[in-house]
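Board work, copied verbatim: Transmembrane protein
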Amino acid sequence: MNIYNIIRKCLMAMLFLLNPLLISVLPAYAEPHKLEAEYLLRITQFVTWSPQLFTDPTAPLEICVLDDAHFQKSLENVVKGRKIGYHPIISRLENNIYKLSTCHIVYITTAGDADRVMTILNSLKNKSVLLVSNIPHFIDQGGNLGFIYQKHGIFFEINYQSLNMKGLTLSSKLLRQALRVIK
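↓ predict structure ↓
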């Protein structure tokens, strides 16, 4: 490992320690899928799911990635060994949209077929599943949290109205960090 990589990793670690959501200032040369995976991990700290959504007090919190094995592998590396409370965080690749209702978070990495995205949004509309994507205008379509790329990094938007319909609770800390919130 060269000195450049060591310095970069030290700077990234310091940023994460200073503010768990301060990922938006990470260097532009960082790989987008790794940034999004880090964001997903940190966002889990600010969402509250009903205890009834877990089969037992130590059941895993499942983050499902739709149709993107490369991103799922990055996410798996990020969440490995991590927990939210007593719930270990696991990632799962899912290709069947009808199995997404068993997930706590669903991440849709590409726009793909617009009809398929709308089918997913409609089928999970009243389920306590956090829907996250990097699709432009995702929260305007009914998604819960959308990643936005701008010149200086990655940011996010929140559709608070759709989250309320699902019974998911977000920390005010997360809401304050959002670039835009639909109330």
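The two ends are 46 Å apart (CA to CA).
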